[in-house]
Structure to design on (85 residues):
């Protein structure tokens, strides 16, 4: 009986979670059925801008680490590997 009570609480929690998810999805569908909602979705998903608007792209700079070359270990392989770094 105790085990059944635990399973019932777990099932009720899952039902509540699924109902919340259903409500959220219904709201999202309702929003997508409007022109403004569809436009917002496309802008967010694909990064489009309206005519006359600008788009700013921020790029994080990564530190470039220098790899010291050892004087006596020069080879064709090290030349190409350093060239493509």
């Amino acid at each position: 009986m105790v085990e059944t009570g635990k399973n019932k609480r777990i099932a009720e929690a899952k039902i509540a979670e699924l109902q919340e998810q259903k409500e959220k999805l219904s709201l999202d569908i309702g929003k997508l059925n409007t022109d403004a909602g569809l436009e917002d979705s496309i802008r967010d998903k694909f990064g489009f801008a309206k005519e006359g608007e600008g788009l700013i792209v921020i790029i994080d700079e990564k530190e470039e680490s220098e790899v010291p070359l050892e004087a006596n270990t020069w080879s064709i392989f090290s030349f190409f590997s350093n060239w493509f770094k």
